[in-house]
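Field: COMPLEX_INPUT
Field: COMPONENT_COUNT = two
Field: RESIDUE_TOTAL = 679
Field: MODE = joint
Values follow.
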Amino acid sequence: MNRIDQRFAKVRQEERAALVTFIMAGDPDKASAQDIMNGLPAAGADIIEIGMPFSDPMADGLTIQLAGQRALAGGMTLAQTLDMVKSFRVHDTQTPVVLMGYYNPVYIYGAERFVIEAVKSGVDGVIIVDLPPEEEAELGDHARAHNLNMIRLVTPTTDDNRLRKILPGAGGFLYYVSITGITGAAAANAQALTPRLKHLKTKTDLPLAVGFGIRTPDDVAALSEVSDAVVVGSAIVETIGKIGKGQAKISDVITQVTALASALRQPARKRATNR
Amino acid sequence: MARSASLYKSVPDENGHFGIYGGRYVSETLMPLVLSVEQAWEKAKDDPAFWAEFDELARDYIGRPSPLYFAESTTRHLGGAEVWFKRDELNHTGAHKINNCLGQILLARRMGKTRIIAETGAGQHGVATATVCALFKLPCTIFMGATDIERQKPNVFRMKLLGAEVRAVTSGAGTLKDAMNEALRDWVTNVNDTFYIIGTVAGPHPYPAMVRDFQSVIGREARQQFMDRTKTLPDTLVACIGGGSNAIGLFHPFLDDAVVNIIGVEAGGHGLETGQHCASLTGGRPGVLHGNRTYLLQNEDGQILEGHSISAGLDYPGIGPEHSWLHDQKRVNYVSITDKEALEAFQMMARLEGILPALEPSHAFAHVMKIAPTLPKTHRILMNLCGRGDKDIFTVADRLGVTL
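Field: COMPLEX_OUTPUT
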C-alpha cells in the first residue's frame, strides 16, 4: 500500500476527512519553505502538496502567481523542488507528498527522468494542471510504471463523458475543483457540492479531495462533511507571502494550519453517517 | 523533404497534433469548452451558409479581396527579382487580424455565446475584436498587459471608442503572454457564456487550425490573383511571424506547390546572440505553453522568457504549432531580422512605394531587400504586407530620435 492509500485508511479510521495543505516550493525563500514543509505534519497536515513554480501559471489566482514569482526570483528550480522533498523525507517517511504544477518544466526536465527522480525523492503523486488525459500518456505511462500516482482534476464542467476519460489511469485521489475559476477565487458552498460529490462517489473508489476557495477552519469543517479530503492553498500561501515582508513568521503558518487541522478533529464533525 | 500532396492537408490530426506539436494542454475545467468550440467549428466549416455569411462580410465590411500589387519602384531599386505585395494592410482596421475575428465571432454567435474576450499585445487584435463586437453588439473584454497599455495608448483609446472594456494585466512583465494567461483565467471563470477569440494560430486545438482556415483567405486570393496576372505561381513567398497567423494564411494554400520557396521572418530584436529577441524557432526549443506544444523561448528549467522586439505584434515567446512542424519538415525556411533592419525597411518602403508598413511586415520587407538583389529578374517574390504602419509612428519617431 502506498503512502496516500495508507493515509486515507488512517483518517477513515479516525472518522474524519484529511487535510491537504498547499505551499509553493522555494517560497518565500528556499530555507523557509523547507522549514514550513517540515513543520506541516506536526501541525496536522495529512497530505502535503508542493507547488512547482512556473512562470505562466494559467489556472492560478494572484496569490499563487506571486508565490511562484517569489520562488523563481530566489532561483528555485524543479531539481531543487525534488531536493526539498528528499530533505523532508529524512525526518518523515509517512506523510504523502504530492507535486502540483504545469507541464513545461517537467517536459523540459524529461518526463521519465522526472518520474524516476520524483519517486527516488519520496514523491507520492503528481498533479499537472494543464495535462488532460488526452495528452497525459507521455508522462502518465512512466508514472504508472513506477507507481507514482497521477492525480487528476474533476471540475464542475466535467460530465460523465469526460469522467470516462479521466478515471482510467487516475491514482491516489480525485481532486475536485469546487468552482469554475482559478485558485483563491470565490468560496465553495458545501451544500451545493453535495449532490455532485455523491454522484462522483458512484463512479469511483478513489477518495475525493475538494479544493479551490477553501480558506478558513469553518470552510474546512463544512467541506469535510461531504468529502474525504479538503485542500487549503491560497489562504496559507497568503500568510507565507507576508513572511518575506516581515509581517508574519513561520510559526504563524504553523498556527494557521493547526487551526485548520483541529476543525477536522472536532467530535461534532465526526461523520461516517453521510458517506 | 516530404512533399506529398496529402501531407500538408493531413494536419492537424483529430487531437490537434501537427507531428509532436499542437494538442490541447489546458486545465480540465476548460476541456469541455475547447471540445465544444471544436465541435461547433467542425460543423460550421462544412456549412455553406457559414461561409456565405463570412464571404459577404469579408467583401462588404473588410474590403476583400485585398489587391495584389506589383512594387515596380522597389523592384527597380533592388535590381533583381520582381517584388509583389499582397495588400492586407488595406483591410478595415488596417491589418489581417480582422479576417480571423470575423470568422470567430460568427462561430461564437452560432454557439449562442453572449460575451467575448480576447488578448492583445500591440492592440491590433484587440481593435479588430472590439470592431466585430461593435458590429454584432456583443460585450467585449480585452486583456492587455499594463506595459503594453502604456506604449500603445492610441489603440487602447480605439478599443474604448468601439465599446470594449480594456483590462490591464499587471502579472508577470505585463505583456502579451501575461495577457493571454489572464484571458485564459477569465475563460475558466466564465465558462458558460464566454467565447475566447484567440488572435493568432496558437492556443489549444482547434484554434491553430481554425485561425489558419480563416486567414487562408489571404493565400487563396493571392494564388488566384497571381495566376491571373502572371500565368504562373510566385517563386518565393515571404511573411513575418510572431504567432504566425498572417504567414500561415499566405503560405497554406501554397504548401503543396513544391516549386514555391517559402520563407518566414521572425523578429530578431537586438540580434539572436544578445538573447533579446522573439525568434522562437531559430532561438528557442519545443515546450508547452498556452494550450499547445511548440517552439518557445525558455530557460534550461522550462521557465518562459520574455521576448523583445521593436514590433509589439511580434513580441511573443512562442509561435503557432504548425510553423514548428513546417520548420521540422523543412518545408518553410525560417530566418530572422533585427529591429534595426526592420526600421530601415520601414523607411525604405515609405520612400519607394508611398506606403507606411507596420513594423511587423517591415521585418518581411527587410528580408525581401536582402534576397531580391541576389535573384534573377525572372524570379517573382510575393510578400504579405499584412498591416499598415500608422500605429507605429510613435515607436519609429522615438527610435529615430524625433519628438512628436
